[in-house]
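Bit of a strange request maybe. I'm writing a small parser for structure token strings and I need a real example to test against, not something I typed by hand. Could someone generate the tokens for this chain?
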Amino acid sequence: MFLLEKMCHEGYNLVVAHVNYKKRENSDYDENLVRSYCQKHSLPCEVYQVKGFEYNSISNFQDRARKIRYDFFQKLANKYQTKHIVVAHHLDDHLETYLLQKQRKSLVEYWGLSPRTKQGKYWIIRPLLSLNKQQICRYLTENKVNYAIDSTNQLPIYQRNIVRRELDNLSKEEKNFEKEIKEKNLELKKTKKLVKVAAKKLIISRSALKLDKTNNYSSEVYLRLLYSWVNRATGGILQKRKKKLLNEIYKQLFSSKKANLILKLDDNFCLVKTNNQAFIIA
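Reply from user aminoacidic:
Good idea to test on real output. This should exercise your parser:
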């Protein structure tokens, strides 16, 4: 509601989108809150009510919910002919994402949440990353703007919720990860430049890679290079099996002393290593 209130008062041309996941007994209250605000301010309001079958068989509800949400946003962006999708992630979300990334030891595209992210032909814009939840709630209370808080956010049923509770227990000084995040993103930018240099030297073709042991790149550079190369050659095989399979490919190509081997990637592709090259074969 804070983002909606701010953008409405600043005169933006808005279409408001709300997703009702129907996972809480009071989720309709949130929907009605948004509808009422939009009616009061004469704003177009689009609501998507998620059906149970859309995620009941999915083990990772949060990932599925994210896909449903952004698919809906992109459909609306196309309908209303805009390339800008503005979302209300705030500073706490930024810090939670960063800590989750560190726990998972992910090969991230950006540490924390980026203020702007390109997703297909659309831009996801996050203008509230400098404000924390307390500041937002204080503003809404002082300005008498009705809002709702998702009570399930505090339940330890998802890893993000566990991290969120840990953050809530930290002091303001202990929560100060912003400088660390900024430094890591600067380092990541340098690493990505090295990956581009390495790619020019080592990628022979869409399905062939040169195994040159004279290059002293870090393991992260090699991992990022392999992730890009393998995905292009296989149509995205590492998208869902990224960590385990990627680490095995790196181990066999750059750590193993075996000169010749065949590594099955899935039912359709295998990786063939020779003395100084690697090939992906369908």
